[in-house]
Amino acid sequence: MSGYTETQPLGRTATADGRASPDRSSAANQSHRLANGGLIDRQAPLQFSFDGKSMSGFAGDTLASALVANGVKLVARSFKYHRPRGIMTAGSEEPSALVEMRTGARKEANTRATTQELYDGLVASSQNRWPSLRRDFMAVNSLLSPIFVAGFYYKTFMWPAKFWEKLYEPAIRRAAGLGETAHLPDPDHYDKAWAHCDVLVVGSGATGLSAALAAGRAGARVILCEEDSHIGGRLLSDGGEIDGMPALDWLRRVTDELASLPNVRIMARTAVFGVYDGGDFGALERVNDHVPQPAEHQVRQRLWRIATRRSVVGAGAIERPIVFPGNDRPGVMMAAAVRTYINRFAAMPGKRIAVFTNNDDGWRTVEAVVRAGGEIAAVIDPRGKVPAAYRALADRSGLRVLPGQVVDVKGGVDGVRSITVATGSSTQNIDTDCLAASGGWNPNVALSSFHRGRPTWREDIAAFVPGVSPPGMIMAGAANGDLSLDACLRTGHAAGAMAAAETGAKGKSGNAAKAADEAFAIQPLWQVKAKGKAFVDFQHDVTASDVTLAQREGFESVEHLKRYTTLGMATDQGKNSNVTGLAIMADARGRSIAETGTTIYRPPYAPVAIGALAGHHRDQNFHAWRLTPSHHWAAERGAVFVDTGLWKRAQWFPLAGETDWLQSVKREVLAVRNGVGFCDVSTLGKVDVRGADAGTFLDRVYINGFSKLAVGKARYGLMLREDGIVMDDGTTSRLAEDHYLTTTTTAKAGPVTQHLEFCRQVLWPELDVQLSSATDQWAQFSIAGPRTRDLLINLVDPSEDVSNEGFPFMGVREVMLRGGMKARLFRISFSGEMAFEIAVPARYGEAMARNIMKAGEPFGVVPYGTEALGVMRIEKGHVAGPELNGMTTASDLGLGGMASKKKDFIGRIMAGREALMAPDRQVVVGIKPVDKARRLRSGAHVVPKGAIPGPETDQGYLTSVCFSPVLDHWIALALVERGRERIGEIVRICDPLRNEDYEAEICSPVFYDPEGGRQRA
Amino acid sequence: MRIACPFCGERDSSEFSYLGDASPKRPNFAVDSPNSPAEIEDAVFDYVYLRANVAGDMREYWYHGGGCRSWLIAERNTVTHEFKSVTAAPGAGAALAGQAGE
């Protein structure tokens, strides 16, 4: 164990260049800090506060190690019983020492003190207690614990059912729980990034370093991820000798060599949390969690997606607790964690330490305590004799070794005061302030099991080892059940070399490093059967008796055990409790552990903040925006925008003095109906269809025909899905013999393009036809109203004839604009007025909007938004999204007559099915209220007059609703059973959600200009 | 996960969308088909709705909408999600008259 006289930190921790000389007094205040050793920087003292109390630590400390160094035992209250809890581990598996970090908007709940690096000015506080950690009022729960057993909530708060949501659950949630969130927007930025490599190495202990070195030397592109701030894994805590040198010297040599290889990237503070299909890994880099707040333009955390061809997982093993009464008292710690605090952080967790171990590894903690000059109160080893390797130590140090079990731990909020040890039939009390316990080691099989690989039981180490790993993954070292240092070096090297070779790397990996192969022996001891509360899951307060209760009540399968007791369901996902819990279940059932099996492992391995998963996709960047070509012009005019899919469309253009949207919309509609207005319709999907067979192609995808459409003409078309339901509608123009331009609705532009490509590429590759999306290429404006032609005359070149004869309804052609630019002009109308759509290349869209305003100025032109567009289409009875709802047929929409009988088309045969032709289907009709002052609301149900509203009497609902400025009352389109036969019938409209009930008349869906004379004028 | 588009190379799976089983063949019936209406409806019904729920290798349609807009036919294992092969649909890429349909 040489190498602990090092005072210089390894890895990334900055040295204290230029800082003031060490603050001796602050070091002196650290009651449990060792005078020498550790990988802390004694030249860099740091001040921090916990629960308002100011303390000091050193650079290289975690919050947990600094608390240990300051003699702090009590750091938390437990989830359910509010029992006092301390620091249990020294790693990311920590179940107990969860704290609230920072204050204000940066406050973060449930941070593991064991992974939080100390920084100057760090502020942390305990959670789940009131009014204070020492005097927690809710600790009364602990007195009530006999009734708070597993399943208690289910059994007790069942009746009356309505009390659950309003009364029981909020009360329980207040009493049980962990930290509190900031309730403020997170001011920090989070990033997402991709990384690619040949070999991903997870973990930087002896195994990971050997693998990275072997793969890196061979020439593979390697990424090495380490969740800790320092590279080295257990080497930082356990030392040892490798290749004849102190482990830390070897560590420095290897990290130097890896740093010199350009094909190797080392990522510290980066936890790999999941493995996904195709060799993708998720990893979270805690870029700036170790400083008070990120520097300007820096991110707090970064979510990595790492694409790799092979992976070597050297994630180590996690020490498991023994279940005995009082095993959750502050001061009961994992044996290896005690070693870490002593060796790595020079912090002694107790003045008089007892060790309770069923395996040889616990004895290494005994050795570490002795070496550091600490006092061993006793070593309790139920196996009855001292392992051979430690006999000399036991003799030399005069250790009190007891062949028994710890049956009770006494103490208070300040931690352990004494333990009771049973040896045979006698018991004795031993004074101690820290009990180091080890129940053995569980290989960290999580990553190997995320693709449902079931771990397998290995009797000799009494632990689960990886089963079938995801493709390309090699488990190595302790994570694979090879627990000795030499085995880690050897298997890590072999795995790295193999992974590199499999990716085609040709270089030489060299030889594996060597270490003395220490023995590991264990005699399983899961639970000390003695009276008292003995914890299995420390974070969720699940006790051994909860597990046996679950068994008695029939929840025997491990998955049921988990749900019934919540074992392993907390933020630590049972890293140090799951295996123990199922071992106790196996014992209760009289089955073997192998037969009992494990629950299914799922990512993430470690908690990932939602902020990191969201990255920059928040607030206004939640999704991408698509702006119409006239967007900036519309924004200049104060347009109100609405999100339609990714598009931002002008909804209406309020004028000064207008206070209500309806006021603006009415004005816009009347301006169009009586004069002229225009609207940006560029968002409609546009698909260019070209080729000798373009007409045939369109005949097959639309219910109506297009091959006989004359060049220079447009036609409305309706397309069905294969199942006979309407997919989309829009106009198609024939620009040349072999060139059509098809339009889709805004919402369906993508899906329709995909569908058309499927038809072309998969169904009918023999057709000579090509498709290309032209939605983004054109800025298109609808100009509508009786004065449209007057406006156009000011817009187009005088040589262009836009008279009714020269440019009839449904005509299409290219025109020359004034100033010499070409545009496409379509005489189509959605509003029912005489209307043209004019299209120019998208980059001229904004200029075009300004030109239309100018050309229309003498006629009082107004821009109108999507609301006015919607009002006019409802007045005109045109169907849109609310009617094309994925359930309606062409005849439901009143468009059945369009279907050609002379050709086959997609959806033809399925549309002919009996139910889709049934006479009692709900079809599109108009609805007007009997009381003309009545406001209609979409979604209201239609029932016969005099009927009691209900599922049996429901006959349809209002799909589209608007106030008609022309009729001066509200109108609606509706889908109503047998609607077309019932024109003139008075029906009852029921809206139980809004508590409305009134009468209305079924009418024709065309409220405005039913003869269509205006659009043809 | 990446999918090897025959036109674009290996691309992230988020660029692609999935349609489903590529084995059903679309029946073609002219409006004056001599087949009985029941026969026609059954054939089209099977094409539209009937799918085997394969656990294992399956030929599937995928669409590279975030790239070249090609329809692809992939052989994929529905249990492991492993792609065995990815080929272009017969009409993907430039149109060539006279190709056989899927």
Automatic annotation (TrEMBL), chain B:
Extract the InterPro entries matched here.
SoxD (IPR006279), SoxD_sf (IPR038561)
An annotated Gene Ontology molecular function: sarcosine oxidase activity
Name recorded for this polypeptide:
Sarcosine oxidase subunit delta
**Superkingdom of the organism of origin:** Bacteria
Q: Name one GO biological process term.
A: tetrahydrofolate metabolic process
